[in-house]
Amino acid sequence: MERGGGSGVWTGMSWGPIFGTVQSQPQSPSPSQRVPDQTIPNLVIPDVQSLQISEEKPQSTPLESKENRLMPIKRPDKGGKLTIRPITLLVNHFPVSFDRESTVLHYDVDIKPDTSASNRSAKKFIPKSDRRLIKDKLSSDDPTGFPQEKTAYDGEKNLFSAVTLSPGQFKVELSRGEEMKSRPYLFTYQFVNELKFSNLEDYVSGKLECIPRDVLQGMNLAMKENPLRHRINVGGRFYSKEFRVEDDLHCGSAAFRGFELSLMLTSQGLVLCLDYSVLALHKRLPVIDFLKEHVRNFLKVSDVKGLENEVASALEGLKVDVTHRVPPQKYMIAGLTRTITRDIKFILEDSEGNPPTKIGLVEYFREKYGKEIMYKDIPCLDLERENYVPMEFCTLVEGQRYPKEDLDDKKSRLLKDISMPPPEKRKTTICEMVRAKDGPCGEVAENFGIEVEKTMTKVSGRVIKPPNLKVGNGQSVTVDREKCQWNLSGKSVVEGKSLERWALIDFISFSKMNACTFIGNLRNRCKNLGIRVEEPVVCHFTGRLDFCSVTEIQKLLESVVSEAKGKCKGRLQLIVCVIPKNNPVRKYLKWVSETQIGVLTQCFCTDQYLANLALKINAKLGGSNVELIERLPGTEGEEHVMFIGADVNHPAARNVTCPSIAAVVATMNWPAANRYAARICPQDHRKEKILNFGNMCLDLVNTYARLNKTRPKKIVIFRDGVSEGQFDMVLNEELLDIKRAICTEDYHPTMTLVIAQKRHPTRLFLDNGGGASHNVPPGTVVDTTIVHPFEFDFYLCSHYGNIGTSKTTHYRVLWDENTFTSDELQKLIYHLCFTFARCTKPVSIVPPVYYADLVAFRGREYQEVVMEIQSRVSSSSSVSVASLDERFYKLHPDIKNEMFFI
């Protein structure tokens, strides 16, 4: 089979003629797949010192030559044609023009301290911010030989110039302040390559096979130079240095507005894609003013003494400028001094050779700086290496992130409202930022010969028809024309599973009367949906002290299961837990119940809707809520099809030790394709490649075969969370790993691999108003103009957006042995979005990816519990060995193939 120059057929032994004769032997199932699942009984924690985590990770053998590597397939046609109506859209893509004959010069940069005799103690690591200062100093020292406005620097190794530079090694003196010696650095750069702008046009027209990333990188940097010099740069986004009065969060932080930008090659050529962005940042405040806003009950300076723990916690790790020196210098706060300011004394070394003398900090500031310290009866700030400075002389450095989790509900809602403006407001703001003086279109971009059209791209889209849905008793359900939602009032689910043996645990001190009311309401709501629910066999009313640890939760659940066994025949089906909102008891419950006890749990907050709760319970029990009437496009015939979703959850940015969590889900039924099983596996910190992808998929295929007495003939894989730079890894490592694990001489299913990207900057706007939300309607597809010049991709908005501006999902098809047309795959994905189990509306991303994201997050909750267990067992290691041990994440056999994650 050959289509679009990019697909081949896996025969179990070799690739077809397109990729030569690279041989690959199928792998046998690992021993762990031939042994029945085991759990860790009674929370017995092994000796973490004796655990041995293998250094060997599963490796995919890369294809030897570049010519034999798998490449993303090309678009099979000129785009889809299915539509119930056309739609005209504006897109935040701004066409970029340039001189085809122009070039940009690429130089390699090396900056290191001058390690001469006078500077041997210089630090080897140079922060990116300092590297930029060094480059700017070189430009100011030699503006003719190294013109500031005609160069763009990434702060690391790459320098791009619009004019020829004279390579060499240059000594740059960077001043650190009036009292400190300037530090000498050696700035070396050498010519790498002359990059032709014509390569961009050649790639778009198909004359060039590989995307000219080096040219794009240089032009991208040129576009970012102007905002880099005038705005706050955080994570590649650029924010205004001032915040609006209405954006003040009144806790030492504010919502700062800005943008993200990137250059993209699309079917219409090179475009600038710019989107609106908002981030909570610390305000540039004197430290004492920050404490008055941030720390509760901090009203006056003397309150520092009574609130030392709260003050230290609020300040530790923040950067400050010290204002008693000229120019101000930046330091990081290590903590508070143990003594108050008036009692701090230190040894002062005399630069003229006189004997050292002991001096008080108050006296030193008076004599050295002519500053009288006002607040002598509070601690000072300890600014790295016992550098003590009074709080009154310290101001927070601008541009420091304020953790969203530290905001209360009211401030979180305000930040969310600012971050999610309606479409018309977002569109106007984006256009203003493109035209702004501190925006991307500055002098440097002009010197590189880059011109940007200041109006958005107009594109024709299509709205495709929603599917027909069926519910209980063979009835169809009407899908709303505007929102594509449906109502189950007066209708039942397709298949309601009876809940006969269940328990209720109350963690919020329900009265028994309230508990009876809740049980009665839940049973009635489930009955209306065709789900029979009996009275609970156990009702347990507990207090907060019962769930202060994992051990207590395990004892509680075991006692409830034991009590239930004495009252009914058969295994307990479900434990419904009424818990406070955002309470840590949830993660304890989930880890214990899903890895140790093997009983499904359903957590419930009192402000949840019972109808939604009923849908979740039915899905967990193995029921079916809603199904498609028609078969999914491209899957006609009797052959079984499996849909796989995969995602990796990484730890928070400030965490440098915890593992990443890989999750893979797969459908377990056909043709409804709405029942899923999941697998979880920890892996190395921030490793995006799923190391056990093949083995997890093999386990799921074997489970499918056991449940359905046949293996799927077609497999469609949806991969979430990867950027364009990782496509090659997904194709040539993950996909091959899956094929080697699954395919044998007598079994070689055809596979399609699709990347689902939600984190992209492209936004679609209606050209002429719209419905109540002014957002693009569900079913909107765009597969021309703004898409890749020739690869198989499209944008699909599958949900109704009633808050903010809808964000489409960008689907990128990397591999396709199932020969989908654009229409077939777009329709298939859109229809799948109606099968999500816990709501009565289409979701914004294809369910296999949505579920994989939920499972990966569940794995992150497991990891947090495992870390708590680890801290009790051993505190000798900063890295948890147990947190990488797969046994702690192994799902209990009784629930591993159920939708426990809903």
Offer a quick outline of the entry.
The protein is an alpha+beta fold and 902 residues long. 25% of the residues lie in helices and 23% in strands. Residues 1-64 and 875-879 have low confidence and may be disordered.
Fill in the keyword field for this structure.
902 residues; alpha+beta; Alpha-D-Glucose-1,6-Bisphosphate, Chain A, domain 4; paz domain; eleven-stranded mixed beta sheet; six-stranded antiparallel beta sheet; 17 helices; globular; disordered N terminus; Argonaute 2
Structure description:
With 902 residues, this protein is α+β, with helices and mostly antiparallel strands. Among the domains are: 103-192, no CATH class; 197-283 and 401-452, Alpha-D-Glucose-1,6-Bisphosphate, Chain A, domain 4, CATH 3.30.530; 287-397, paz domain, CATH 2.170.260.10; 496-621, Rossmann fold (3-Layer(aba) Sandwich). Helices cover 25% and strands 23% of the residues. It has 17 helices and 37 strands. Strands 31-30-29-32-33-37-36-35-21-1-34 form an 11-stranded mixed beta sheet, with helices on both faces. A hairpin with a 5-residue loop joins strand 22 and strand 23 (476-477). The longest helix is centred in the last third of the chain and has 27 residues, at 847-873. The chain is globular, with a radius of gyration of 31 Å.
